[in-house]
Design a protein that fits this description.
elongated, 87% helix, Anthrone_oxy, mainly alpha
């Protein structure tokens, strides 16, 4: 495939991917996970595990594809190199945020979900509810990063 065609495809991907990932992340924070707050850990932790594993299967490759598209545009459009490089980094930031900020809570929720004794204790002391609430707030940050990336990509695309 010639570079001009790749650049066209990269532009077609660089704008909608971050918006799609923002909506996907926002939906879980707004509509799915909060519904599990008042459930016992025996019910909420398996739901969270599903949200997390299925979400990772969408968000991680999507973020990487969005970053790769923006990186190609940074390479192929020297006059917009800085903005597209910024967008590429912004597409990866939610993955970094997950690993550095969210991972401790995620791993604790997954750990609780594997042990009935931990589930009973986490239900009685509201630990799972607190962890889920924290996850929701932290996930809003990921959605915000994707929105910012999408807006910047849209603006960069409108310039040319």
């Amino acid at each position: 495939m010639d570079p001009i065609t790749i650049t066209r495809y990269a532009r077609l991907l660089a704008v909608p991917i971050p918006f799609a990932l923002a909506g996907y992340s926002f939906a879980f924070s707004q509509n799915a996970v909060p519904l599990t707050y008042d459930l016992p850990a025996e019910q909420s932790t398996p739901i969270f595990r599903g949200v997390y594993t299925q979400g990772a299967a969408v968000v991680a490759p999507g973020g990487i594809l969005g970053a790769a598209s923006a990186a190609w545009l940074a390479y192929s459009l020297p006059e917009q190199q800085r903005v597209w490089a910024t967008i590429a980094v912004m597409n990866l930031m939610p993955l970094v945020w997950t690993g550095l900020v969210m991972n401790t809570g995620i791993q604790r929720l997954l750990e609780i979900g594997k042990d009935k004794g931990k589930m009973a204790k986490a239900t009685s002391n509201l630990e799972v509810r607190q962890l889920l609430g924290r996850w929701v707030l932290q996930n809003y940050v990921r959605a915000g990063l994707y929105v910012a990336s999408g807006v910047l990509a849209w603006r960069a695309t409108m310039v040319v």
